[in-house]
Amino acid sequence: MCIALEDYFKEHPEYYECMVAAYVIGFSITQDLLDETYAPASENLGSRMFNEETGEYEIVDIGADAQVNLNRGVVVTSADAEPISMAEAFGPQCFHNGDYTFFFENIKDNVAKRVAAYKGL
After folding, report:
1. I need a labelling partner for 62 at 20 to 30 A (CA). Which of 28, 44, 51, 120 fits?
2. What string of DSSP letters covers 17-36?
3. DSSP-H helix ranges across 1-121
């Protein structure tokens, strides 16, 4: 997806004027687009998790830190959450279902900042 956007925008540079952001979480990107900077859980503004007892989603701190592991081509986290059962495809500690939810408040904050910058606010 990321490469498709990159290639498409090369052919249509006028679309950059309308582009605010692209969140391509869970899609393949090339190694040269990554760095391995550690983001501690203290920088996470909150995770959006489903509360089984209340039946509601809530913003909580699950200790979701993040760091790219270039050897595996994945983002590693020590979040306090249950991995999904896709071990055969992604490995035994897969949190693919947490791509957005673990870092929900950070993404929401980033979207607001990017839209404000785009609008010149």
Report:
1. 28
2. GG------TTS---GGG---
3. 2-11, 87-90, 104-119
